[in-house]
Amino acid sequence: MDNNPFKNINQPLKEVPVELKSKVMNDIAMAKLIMDLAALFSYNFSHVIETVITKRNIKNQP
Amino acid sequence: MKTLDNINKLSDEDLVEAIVKTNNTALFEVLYDRFSSLIYNKCYGFAKDGDEAKDLTQDVFLKLFVKLASFKGKSKFSTWVYAFTYNHCVNYVTRNTAKKFEKQSVDYKDIENLSDDYEEDDSSFLSMKVEKLKVALELISPEEKMILLLKYQDFLTIKEIASALEIGESAVKMRIKRAKDKLVTEYNVNVK
């Protein structure tokens, strides 16, 4: 399909507004902060369970 | 500088893996630089104007950062990003209608018929004029527009579309066929 008209429907490509990058990176910084804070106040349950099982096994060894 | 060079040499997939591991925003900035033009222009195709395209792009990148870990590397990252962006745009465009993008049921009779004689007959598109095609694309549903763009603008294979949209290959073929038929009808009947 050399003369595929779909190739040309978004031509010429629009220039990305310069100010958009700082807006996006601000959003990302905020999202990272929230995710990091959430991680501080939540348990990593798989790690907790694994640790308990490992320690229990060691304790029960003769 | 050497580190920056190394980062720039990373494939998209390796870069994503590094971002998921470290949650490093500087690495995400590299990803932004690689994909901002692509995502912005995809969003522009579904937006009313530049401001709306900007808002959509901003939302797509934020969602991308949060959901990046759900990329499992089964397809190329760019393929995944196409589908991710289109899904967001389609959901945005259809937000006020009850019909959100969903796994629509497919008539199994259609699939049986299609599986045997499915051929990609794209001759009906070849003679289409770009400006009229743009208008016709606005007359079909956003979901239909999305699947046609994935196939004919982004050149994804049936398999890649199936993987990206998490539906079967037969369903993809069926949807493409229906979307094509509808587009051709709109083009011939309603676009002057």
Folded structure, characterized:
The complex is a heterodimer of chains A (62) and B (192). With 62 residues, chain A is mainly α. Chain A is built from two helices and no strands. By secondary structure, chain B is mainly α. Chain B contains eleven helices and no strands. In chain B, helix 3 (25-44) packs across helix 5 and helix 4 (50-67) packs across helix 5. The longest helix of chain B is centred in the C-terminal third of the chain and has 21 residues, at 169-189. Classes of the chains: A mainly alpha (62), B mainly alpha (192).
Task: State the helical fraction of chain A.
Answer: 55-70%
Distance between the termini of chain A: 74 Å
Shape of chain A: elongated
**Major β-sheet annotation of chain A:** none
Largest β sheet strand count, sense and barrel closure of chain B: none
Percentage of β-strand residues of chain B:
under 5%
Which structural class do you get from the secondary structure elements of chain A? mainly alpha
Any low-confidence stretches of chain A, pLDDT <50, length ≥5? none
Supply database-style keywords.
heterodimer; A: 62 residues; mainly alpha; 2 helices; B: 192 residues; 11 helices; 72% helix; 0% strand; globular
Topology:
The complex is a heterodimer of chains A (62) and B (192).
Chain A: H1 19-40, H2 45-60
Chain B: H1 2-9, H2 12-22, H3 25-44, H4 50-67, H5 77-93, H6 108-117, H7 123-126, H8 130-139, H9 142-152, H10 158-165, H11 169-189
Helix pairs in contact in B: 2-3, 3-4, 3-5, 4-5, 5-9, 5-10, 6-11, 8-11, 9-11, 10-11
